[in-house]
Design goal:
Blueprint (H helix, E strand, L loop, with lengths): L6 H6 L3 H11 L13 H7 L3 H9 L14 H9 L10 H16 L18 H10 L8 H11 L4 H12 L2 H9 L8 H8 L2 H9 L14 H7 L3 H9 L9 H16 L4 H12 L4 H30 L12 H10 L1
Helix pairs in contact: 3-4, 3-5, 4-6, 5-6, 6-7, 8-9, 9-12, 11-12, 11-13, 12-15, 12-17, 13-14, 14-15, 15-17
């Protein structure tokens, strides 16, 4: 079994009008499958073709169809949000497009609690679960804490937007400690989400208000483990040291020092510029003013880090290597190759 001629190209790279015309001309069913059991909806979801997904769903495509290995369209969108598509950088633009596709699928009845293929770690469905919470209004917004948690968690996927929401709500002093400690029904805290995104800014702010880096979610994973799972090794150093005071530094000061050092090592920041930033902080009049500025700088460094990852991803597209063993990122690559 295979897609009729031209359909795969139209699904991956073409315009939505081309896809619909080829479907009509070929007489193919909307849920036509290839040799691996993949449907056009699965292909378009992995390619983050929002208009194509919307058109296929309007034609009655099954949002819960599975391929021969148990993959499905919502998982394909979630894999993109986790950075598992080797053709795309794991930046805010990719995560926002993945969210848009995911919300379309959820509105059509896709199940965020569907069984996963055996080779896919459970955390790769976390973005989809967060989208589902937002789509289904699961957060009962009856208290300010409920409202704060809902707004922050719904921003998960866009690092800058998420961090902005976290910092804004943490300014509500009556809520800050409770929000930093709050967990949803799956045991997920905002620090879990910040660690998954690699947000130094949000992580530092949450730690400064007592967030627990060792808190395990319902699957037994801590924020430290989430940072490592999503490839944020430098941030994991901050979370690893979080339970103890480090040379008398506050969590924000510690985060800033580690982030600057990591940026210098990566070549994203010169040593001279790092020294300038440190000197400028020393000139500020109060500890509170310094921490506010350090959090702002952490946000800027987070943005620079995303740009660097995007540049590296573009360079990696032109390189091929058959010598490496399969990694978690290759789960996405292999799925992409099957389609």
């Amino acid at each position: 079994m295979a897609f009729p001629p031209g359909l795969l190209i139209a699904a991956r790279f073409g315009k939505v009008d081309d896809l619909e015309l080829l479907l009509d001309e070929s007489g193919a069913a909307v849920d036509v499958r290839d040799a691996n059991g993949s449907t056009l909806l699965m292909v378009c979801a992995f390619e983050l073709q929002t208009a194509h997904v919307e058109a296929l769903l309007a034609r009655g495509a099954d949002p819960n169809a599975t391929d021969s290995e148990g993959g499905f369209a919502l998982l394909n969108a979630s894999l993109n949000a986790c950075g598992m598509n080797p053709a795309r950088a794991a930046n805010d633009g990719t995560r926002q497009r993945a969210r848009e596709v995911g919300m379309l699928l959820l509105a059509a009845g896709a199940k965020a609690d569907a069984a996963l293929p055996p080779d896919v770690p459970a955390y790769m469905m976390r973005p989809a679960q967060q989208w589902a919470d937002a789509a289904h209004g699961k957060a009962a917004r009856t208290t300010p804490l409920d409202e704060a948690w809902a707004e922050c968690s719904e921003a998960f996927g866009a690092t800058a937007v998420f961090a902005e929401a976290v910092l804004r709500w943490l300014q509500e002093r009556s809520l800050a400690t409770a929000l930093a400690a709050h967990a949803d029904e799956r045991g997920v805290t905002l620090l879990h989400l910040a660690a998954s995104l690699g947000s130094w800014q949000a992580s530092a702010a949450l730690l400064s208000h007592g967030a627990d880096a060792a808190a395990a979610n319902g699957a037994g994973a801590t924020p430290l483990e989430d940072a490592l799972e999503f490839g944020h090794e430098e941030l994991a150093q901050l979370l690893l040291a979080a339970p103890r005071a480090d040379a008398g530094l506050s969590p924000v000061e510690h985060a800033f020092d580690l982030r600057c050092a990591a940026s210098v090592d990566a070549g994203a920041l010169t040593a001279a510029r790092a020294d300038e930033l440190t000197d400028s902080l020393a000139a500020l009049g109060s500890d509170e003013a310094r921490e506010v500025r350090m959090l702002e700088l952490l946000g800027e460094l987070d943005a620079c880090g995303e740009e660097e990852e995007e540049s590296e991803a573009e360079g990696d597209e032109s390189e091929e290597s058959d010598s490496e063993s399969e990694s978690e990122q290759e789960v996405g690559a292999r799925r992409f190759g099957r389609i």
